[in-house]
Design a protein that fits this description.
Layout (H helix, E strand, L loop, with lengths): L2 E3 L8 E5 L2 H6 L1 E2 L5 H11 L7 H10 L5 E2 L10 H9 L3 H12 L4 H7 L3 H19 L3 H22 L1 H6 L5 E4 L2 E5 L4 E4 L6 E5 L7 E3 L7 E5 L8 H7 L1 H9 L4 E2 H8 L3 H13 L3 E6 L2 E6 L1 H7 L1
Helix pairs in contact: 2-7, 3-7, 4-7, 6-7, 10-11, 11-13, 12-13
């Protein structure tokens, strides 16, 4: 079964996922952002610079706008190189079946890839590496920090309200009525997890609605979109002042005081003063690493930017 994106549906219609007690015990969050999915959902969204198309054309041919994404892109490896190897190691028969059922062999390259030629696999490897580097690489530290903040927030919710409340509030198109999770789809179907549990994957790039991969191994996957931290513009600057807002934005990546000063274009004492004020307000955490002092956003800081 391919990766399926949810879509608006009449109330009560969609995918029903039945949980047993063992499933609840085994349901967990991904340990880190999963780069293969972040890349594939980004390409699928179409919101990327088309000047990049010649470099990632093989990937773009396989990930087209629509409800489905081929399941041979399933890789829950946090390391991108390992995820690429897993995708490229997919048996040719599975690749061929997915292409035939979803895409058709409408181009010479797709026919070559469906046949499993080494050249076509090399082409896809190159497209994956280029796509990750040019579409996600420069912001990957921020993606990781936002992912960690989201998981901390959801973990706190699970402790204070219970797992059912957490599952039912991941996205407006997801709901929980024990013992089932409901995801809006354009058709009705019911699946039992049968003790495998689910891997829940927050996605920071490309995804606007939940998605599922129900036959992924070793357990099904539930993806849901998380708004990447974005500066909230003039209103934030009005509240904090322009320079302090720039400091807050800069600390979406961990920086020393010197790095912060250079990044924002302010003096070292001024950078230290703003970092101290933001730390006092609970928006920034600071720790010492050798001779340097390093700053980064706290969860409250991410929430302020969100």
């Amino acid at each position: 079964m391919p990766i399926v994106l949810s879509e608006p549906a009449p109330k009560g219609r969609g995918l029903t996922i039945l949980f047993e007690l063992e499933d609840l015990a085994r349901t967990r969050f991904a340990p880190a952002p999963l780069p293969m999915y972040e890349l594939v959902f980004t390409v699928h969204s179409g919101t990327w610079d088309r000047l990049l198309l010649p470099q990632i054309r093989p990937l773009a041919e396989l990930v087209r706008p629509g409800r489905f994404i081929p399941d041979f892109f399933n890789s829950a490896r946090p390391d991108f190189d390992e995820a690429v190897r897993q995708v490229l190691d997919t048996p040719s028969t599975r690749v061929r079946d997915q292409i035939a059922s979803m895409l058709g062999t409408t181009s010479p390259w797709l026919r070559s890839f469906a046949a499993g030629t080494p050249t076509s696999r090399h082409d896809l490897r190159s497209a994956l590496n280029t796509g990750f580097r040019d579409l996600l690489g420069s912001n990957w530290p921020e993606t990781r920090q936002a992912f960690d903040a989201e998981v901390r927030l959801r973990s706190s919710q699970a402790v204070s309200r219970g797992l059912g409340d957490l599952l039912g509030n991941l996205h407006p198109s997801i709901s929980w009525t024990s013992p089932a999770l409901h995801v809006e789809l354009g058709w009705d179907t019911e699946i039992s997890l049968r003790g495998t549990g689910m891997l829940i994957v927050p996605v920071l790039n490309g995804l606007t609605r939940p998605a599922v991969s129900m036959f992924a191994e070793p357990q099904p996957l539930l993806f849901y979109p998380v708004a990447a931290p974005q500066p909230s513009g003039a209103s934030l600057e009005l509240a904090l002042g322009r320079t302090r807002t720039l400091v807050l934005r800069a600390l979406t990546s961990e920086r020393t005081t010197t790095e912060l000063a250079k990044h924002v274009g302010i003096s070292l004492p001024t950078a230290s003063q703003h970092a101290t004020a933001l730390r006092t307000a609970g928006f920034v955490s600071t720790h010492r690493n050798g001779r340097s002092v390093r700053h980064r956003l706290t969860r409250r800081g991410w929430e302020l930017l969100n």
